[in-house]
Amino acid sequence: MTYSMTGFAAREQAIENATLLIEIRAVNSRYLDLNFKLDDQIRGFESHIREMIAAQLNRGKVECKMSLMAHSQAKQAVQLDDALIGQLQQMQTQVQAHFPQSRTLSVADILRWPGVVVGDTPNAEALAEAVKALVQQSLQDLNASRQREGEKLKAIILDRISQIERLVAKVKPLLPALAKEYQAKLEAKLQENLKTIDQERIAQELVLFAQRIDVDEELGRLTAHVSEVKRILNSDAPAGKRLDFLMQELNREANTLGSKSVSVDTTQVSMELKVLIEQMREQIQNIE
To answer: What sign for the dihedral angle of Cα 254, 259, 260, 266?
Structure first.
């Protein structure tokens, strides 16, 4: 199965006196890069969430946002954390001992301080189960999104592979014709300059020419690499890095084909091959 590194998932789940919300975004990256934006009540679960994501994804830059939205304050028993307020007062006294001119905390400052206003919070065990379930469901959605995108990328690459196979098939019949064309030109040149045709000299020149334009090995490797690309795309293992390596190998053979070219046709084929390989390489950057 081919997976893209690009995907998105968003879910929410109602729990006691609150709603749990999650968003997971993934884009391409060379390695697995996890970033979290979690509410204070959820931050303690970060290591567990990290393990769950790492078990599902191999590569990509992933951002996980998770928040706990409390229900209407009117329905909750709201109170202040006296211990925390006492700590704030003590810290304020210590700071003002060093900076007498500093202003004191206002009521608004104190109420905005994290943890000062305490409402009915979900049971810790229930919250942990809800977080685990929501992350698991979101990862399923994310992987479904990545799979859909991956199938589109796979279709694009297979289309380019088909075009490469047609180009390789186009080159092979050209080689004997090029040799005959070279023989005719060589005979004409020798006849013009030497007034005689040395068949042994022609044979030697033809052997050298055939060696110089022989691209059977390159065409064979192109065919082998194309088959390997197909095999990897149809396997269940992560494909991105292996496909990227094969693009380098395909490009090397296309360059060699161009360097051995002695006709406009083979030069054109070499250029078209490199264009197709580059188009595949761009798509492969998004494959896990």
So the answer is: positive
Amino acid at position 97, single letter: A
Written out in words, the top-level CATH class of the domain with range 7-72+124-146 is alpha beta
Q: Where are the domains of the chain?
A: 7-72+124-146, 79-117, 147-284
For residue 269, what are the contacts with CB-CB under 8 A and spacing of at least 6?
Answer: 167, 170, 171, 257
CA 257 – CA 248 distance, rounded (Å) = 14
Phi/psi of residue 243, nearest 5 degrees: -65, -40
| C-alpha 273: how far from chain center | 23
* Surface-to-core class of residue 18, CB atoms within 10 Å of its CB (0-12 exposed, 13-18 middle, 19+ buried): buried
Q: CA 135 → CA 114, 128, 130, 239, 277, distances in Å? A: 25, 11, 8, 25, 38
Tell me how far apart the alpha carbons of residues 280 and 282 are, in angstroms, rounded to a whole number.
5
Could you tell me the two tokens for 214?
A: 């022989």
173, 44 in Cβ contact below 8 A? no
What are 68-127's pLDDT values in tens digits? 887 765 455 567 778 888 888 888 888 888 888 888 888 888 877 777 766 555 677 888
Mind listing the pLDDT tens digit for each residue in 232-246? Answer: 999 888 899 999 999
> What is the length of the chain?
288
